[in-house]
Amino acid sequence: MKTYTVKEIADMLKIDPETVRRWIRQGKLQAEQASRKEGNVVSEQMLQAFLGQSPKYARTVAPLMTTPVGITVTTASVLAGILAQQYIKNEKTKKAQVSEAQVIKLLEEDIQSREKTIEQKEKAIKQLKHDILLEKQYISETKNLLVQMVDENK
Q1: Which of 23, 59, 77, 127 has its CA 20 to 30 A from that of 146?
Q2: What's the pLDDT tens digit per position in 73-113?
Q3: Does 139 map to a domain?
Q4: In sequence order, what DSSP letters do the residues of the chain get, joined into one string?
Q5: How many domains does the chain have?
Q6: In whole numbers, what is the pLDDT of the chain averaged over residues?
Q7: 45 assigned to some structural domain
Q8: Is residue 13 included in any domain, yes or no?
Q9: Residue 104: inside a domain, yes or no?
Q10: pLDDT at position 115, please?
């Protein structure tokens, strides 16, 4: 079973390691302490359980982790969220069920959201490439001017 150190989790989530330690102290993230020297270790299962309750962070690590059946942690988190919402909603009636149509709709919405994000990032890349081209042209023109000035002063 794969395990992660506090630093590895902090790096994956792009947060400070102290935040991960605080989650462990608060019981939000389950961990085992092999020794004081090695610090806390979090199993992949424990990390996935935490991410299932924290979609904000699940999206950050989705490209880095997959569940044993090959779906991303984000997808598993989305499905777990649907199930949890339905359970809470139907707790009084004890009919905690999620329809296939609900899961399909949620997954389609997630796909649309990700496609929109990709489109925005591609636009940003295009703009950055344009900006880089302008900077290169400026550098080239400045070098030519510099060469001309040096030649005139000889």
Answers
A1: 127
A2: 556 666 665 555 555 555 544 554 557 777 778 778 878 88
A3: yes
A4: --EEEHHHHHHHHTS-HHHHHHHHHHTSS--EEEETTTEEEEEHHHHHHHHHH-HHHHHHHGGG-B-TTS-BHHHHHHHHHHHHHHHHHTTTTT-----HHHHHHHHHHHHHHHHHHHHHHHHHHHHHHHHHHHHHHHHHHHHHHHHHHHHHT-
A5: 1
A6: 79
A7: no
A8: no
A9: no
A10: 92
